[in-house]
């Protein structure tokens, strides 16, 4: 039983460090955009940014570890070479843009849904009290406001992810450039 819980013989320290760096870059960018666009206070926007980014990172690595065993041997070898040694082999470079785009879309969908769920959960108690005191007109205005906030939320998450992914891509390019020189 304890043998299963032991640390692996090879640990991708570089990947762990860069994943931490990516989180340290993405969280402030996304919290700033949430603060400015949706008008959350700073503490709330930082909380949402941390929750969204940590969740999407954990889910992303879980998907990676679920898909990795079923990949073809050549692709698995190329992927492990990139994760452990930061070297491209084979046709991984050509697939990297497609993989990055799929990861971006997946992260966008996960973060949008999770933010909506968090907002519903954290505001549910206040809304129950307010609904009893509202007139029909106030209820319809509240629904319109909620629809507009929903559109603004989707746009804001898209912008925040685009900017944070751009910053992360620049970090990856800088790492590769420094490695070559």
From TrEMBL:
Transmembrane residue ranges: 12-34, 46-67, 96-122, 153-174
Keyword field: Membrane, Transmembrane, Transmembrane helix
Keyword check for Transmembrane: yes
InterPro entries for this protein: FraC
Keyword Protein biosynthesis annotated: no
Organism superkingdom: Bacteria
Name by which UniProt lists this protein: Filament integrity protein fraC
Native species: Cylindrospermopsis raciborskii CENA302
């Amino acid at each position: 039983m304890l043998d299963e819980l032991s640390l692996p013989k090879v640990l991708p320290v570089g990947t762990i460090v860069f994943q931490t760096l990516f989180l340290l870059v993405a969280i402030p960018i996304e919290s700033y955009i949430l603060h400015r666009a949706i008008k959350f206070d700073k503490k709330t926007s930082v909380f949402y940014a941390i929750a969204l980014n940590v969740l999407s990172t954990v889910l992303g690595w879980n998907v990676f570890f679920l898909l990795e065993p079923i990949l073809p041997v050549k692709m698995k070898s190329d992927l492990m070479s990139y994760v452990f040694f930061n070297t491209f082999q084979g046709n991984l470079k050509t697939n990297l843009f497609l993989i990055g785009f799929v990861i971006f879309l997946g992260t966008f969908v996960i973060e949008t849904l999770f933010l909506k769920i968090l907002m519903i959960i954290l505001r549910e108690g206040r809304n129950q009290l307010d609904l009893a005191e509202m007139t029909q007109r106030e209820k319809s205005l509240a629904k319109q406001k909620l629809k507009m906030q929903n559109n603004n939320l989707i746009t804001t998450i898209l912008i925040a992810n685009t900017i944070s992914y751009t910053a992360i891509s620049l970090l990856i390019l800088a790492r590769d450039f420094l490695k070559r020189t």
